[in-house]
């Protein structure tokens, strides 16, 4: 408790304050800590639902608070019609998915075989095309070029021969000096042959030149392009067909994972269906809510525990307290209280319903740090607990945290707190004047401040108090 600062005001005309005297004498000084506690069972079974996939749990019926139940009795009857329908639809959908998965696996198996066969066949065709092209380039093409050149040469040779024969005939007939009719015919025939050979030679030169300069280069280019096309095709097939196989494998793996997820989802739905059967695991009594450190909390549970209410997941809905369960008391203390409640400190307890029925209790445990509320949880035990106390009963506790049979104390209004942290009181001297005396403060209550140093019994303290 903070000590109230007291300022001495000497204006005797103040309407709300008046001077008061307090004579110090030895007396009993007690500091009491009062705590409200709740009876908490040492063993209890919390009832909750932890859904994995389904979150719609409407309440159809439920056991009343305080009802005595047997092991296996239904505590909360959940309407599972929608959940049952979801399970049925999931089973049917998975059956279709499994058939589709088997189809994909069969397609993959066939593709595994056919891809190898097709690649082998494509490789053979490519190797043949490559061999044919090499033969064309290295053998057929030079032969074609040589053939074209030879054809032109042959016509050249023929023309030269025809001209030579004509020239020889003319020389021979000229030497005879006679030209018979038959010889003229032979000469004319030779001239015709030369003329025909000249035409054939000219024609062969044009044809041969075109073949060498146009036809053969075109054919060569066509075969080169064709070979490049076959090469590109083969290189593409080496990538595309295995890629198609990998894609199919990925499709199967994806389908397998999807099937596994759906199987897991179905298992979770079935587990949620089983978890929706909320029955009592022991013989005992039904409590709505839960026993948390420091008390019994039921407000959140009562918001959903009614017909038509929706059960939340992972929240304690009920607690079943077994028959014959032992109890301990738990309460919450503020910082001032917890610093005065030491372990094994004895105190007195009385049920809230009967303040005259008292029994002894002891502090058994104190949490080392405060809870979210800023309060500490304290546990108490007793070997004399009233038989009528049940789980959730409120109990008032009182502890004497400090007792001094021969203490000196003054009213809180008489003590002045100084900025340096010291405390003073105004003491009446023998001459009637007052003098500020520094004191050392001990324990404090709402109406007393213990003085452990600075004053003696018999001294009179002057202070102002309200009328």
TrEMBL record:
Record's protein name? Multidrug resistance protein MdtA-like C-terminal permuted SH3 domain-containing protein
Q: What are the Multidrug resistance protein MdtA-like C-terminal permuted SH3 domain coordinates in residue numbering?
A: 407-465
Q: Which keywords does UniProt give here?
A: Coiled coil
Where is this chain's protein located in or outside the cell? Answer: Cell envelope
Q: Which InterPro entries match?
A: MdtA-like_C, UPF0194_transport
- Superkingdom classification of source: Bacteria
A GO CC annotation given for this chain = cell envelope
